[in-house]
Design brief:
Blueprint (H helix, E strand, L loop, with lengths): L4 E6 L4 E7 L8 H16 L5 E6 L11 H5 L9 H12 L5 E5 L2 E3 L1 H8 L2 E4 L4 E3 L13 H9 L1 H9 L4 E2 H7 L4 E2 L5 H13 L18 H18 L5 H15 L1 H16 L2 H15 L18 E5 L3 H12 L3 E5 L3 H20 L5 H8 L2 E4 L10 E4 L5 H14 L5 E4 L6 H4 L9 E6 L8 E6 L5 H13 L3 E6 L6 H17 L4 H11 L5 H8 L1 H14 L9 H7 L12 E3 L5 E3 L3 H11 L6 H4 L3 H21 L6 H12 L8 H8 L1 H15 L7 H9 L15
Bound molecules: 3-hydroxybutanoyl-coenzyme A (3HC).
Amino acid sequence: MGRGTTEMEVGGDGVAVIIINNPPVNALSVDVLFSLKENYEQAIKRDDVKAIVLTGAKGRFSGGFDINAFQKGTSKEVKPGFISIDFLTDSVEGANKPSVAAIDGLALGGGLEVAMACHGRICTSTAQLGLPELQLGIIPGMGGTQRLPRLVGLSKSLEMMLLSKPVKGEEAHSLGLVDAIVSPKELVKVARSWALDIAEYRRPWVRSLYRTDKLEPLGEAKEILKFARLQAQKQSTNLEHPLVCIDCIEEGIVSGPRAGLWKEVDSSKMLQSSQTSKNLVHFFFAQRATSKVSGVTDIGLVPRKVRKVAIVGGGLMGSGIATALILSKYSVILKEVSEKFLQAGIGRVRANLQSRIKKGKMTEESYEKTLSLLTGVLDYEQFRDVDLVIEAVIENVSLKQQIFADLERYCPPACILATNTSTIDLNLVGEKTTSQDRIVGAHFFSPAHIMPLLEIVRTQRTSAQVVLDLLDVAKKIHKTPIVVGNCTGFAVNRMFFPYTQAALLLVDRGLDVYQIDRAITRFGMPMGPFRLADLVGFGVAVATALQYLQSFPERCYKSMLIPLMLEDKRIGEAARKGFYQYDDKRKASPDPEIKKYVEQSRNMAGGIQDPKLMKLTDKDIVEMVFFPVVNEACRVLDERIALKASDLDIASIMGMGFPHYRGGIMFWADSLGANYVSSRLEDWSKMYGEFFKPCAYLVERANKGESLGAQVDLAKSRL
Ligand SMILES: C[C@H](O)CC(=O)SCCNC(=O)CCNC(=O)[C@H](O)C(C)(C)COP(=O)(O)OP(=O)(O)OC[C@H]1O[C@@H](n2cnc3c(N)ncnc32)[C@H](O)[C@@H]1OP(=O)(O)O
């Protein structure tokens, strides 16, 4: 079956309207592009056609080239340059009949590139126009690197491409990217008469590719490109495609737009088969797949409306969650135990909003309006009509049990009862209630109003309806949800607990703390394990480590390094002293004093330093720190705590900052090969103990030559 088509209607006015039709976003599949080409040929041939209007069905021009084709390939072989040069440049832009693009909704990537090959563009004020290809590890491949700079100037086009940042209709108009803004109702009508005006020489016949009026003089252009290269190298270390994009733009400016088009064609082909592009395309689909949950979103249920939310606990997490909710227009009640704590909680919400004002993301007026959605309370009286409660108090089982028993008494019987615990078994939390079907985990990551991930934890008794309702709330507060099962640490924290432990093991065996952090940040993590431990605080680190020690004693590495530092009141960034020392501006710098703790810890670990470890490359360090994480992720899948490896990819990226351009933890492991990961772990386990022992799931997949990302058997699911 084909993927999409175009339809053509020729009106009595001599205008052929060609409509792109490929729901939901009118993506340009190869089928759509071939159909478009056929209709163009017809329109050019027919004597009753004077001009052409190109538009998209159902209020969306086009979301760009069909990204599925990057993963699955296409049914037809297309020769290089066929779409960009033969069709768009020579047949559409070079035609003797003018085309006008009528843009509503979105014109992204290939969608905007097709529109830029037209001789005029009309759009609605809400339309989004942009070239976001770089977010997929590729560059615009249908002339975008050549035409966008010629329409909006070099600086703005670089910003739009390098940041994958679209512009809205009004801005597109003031930039000169579109010629007029009209209402959706008028769109096609105005485009028709615009096209006729061009055909009859009442308006200029503009071929964007040959315009030079917006381009800066050569010397200035070269300076702008030089600066852009420096910026790209700084902001996108490890990435090649932003630099390739700049090279293509430069080629067009220096050697002419046709040479630029050919360089773009060749570079696009090369980048499409790069590992980075595969990783980023995987990330695109994996992110969308998280909200498709088998047994929840495919059984005909409809999410219930959540209007009013109560939060118990106004600490760092509770106030962050409250901020996220009021920002999405939920009415929120914040409960604390005393006036003092309540005011502190509300103060934190205020500060979160104020910081948005400082960053220009919020006006004073919307600040007041948003804050008016928050009510502080000291008892449960106002909980009688809430639709959702999120408990966010300290990690104390009996306190949580008491709170849930109270919630059961005060909240309506259908109210969703969620806990923000990051480790405690949900069955334990709800032990003193009879409401197990509506108890669910809503695990936010700190700071909750900023971090994009929401881990939704369900027990075997949580109802599908409750999970669906929370998925809907997640969407409304712009969080990416992953639905996981119930166990110590759930999916995200559990998967990452070996991260710090591996780093500690390496230090006990002779490696330098800062060398490890450097290798991990060069790999693309926002910070290394030791800098992260400082940020989280040693108190939390030790408490969490104890929980894992209780749950998974056989594979915990017990280093004394953090407890030793804790004894001396080095507790991390909060005290300005952890693995690093911190100045007034919270800038971290290595601290020579930690040497003594390291020595002590090494002695307590038996003083075994391994000369082999002294010669580790960055790559080895990265693998020794992350392969234990992959190993734990495999266990999480094997136990069906997560149902899809791609959910763990998203969790690693959005919860832990794993570089998205590496595709996420499991996709990255698969790019190296399950067999490689398993055999390296096996070797290390012989040298350094059980901590590295590959789990049965990993060994089995490695032996069978299967990828770690291949679907698990859902029949065994515990959810
Ligand atoms: C040669 C060229 O230069 C190369 C290119 O054009 S590459 C493509 C460039 N285009 C892009 O990067 C745009 C990617 N898409 C997006 O940013 C967003 O999907 C959007 C802004 C278009 C719509 O966002 P939103 O309304 O929130 O819906 P969203 O859930 O993201 O997408 C709806 C569906 O359309 C699909 N989709 C979106 N863009 C697509 C595309 N270009 N190709 C194929 N499918 C696409 C999504 O996968 C999703 O499918 P699903 O329902 O099965 O999960």
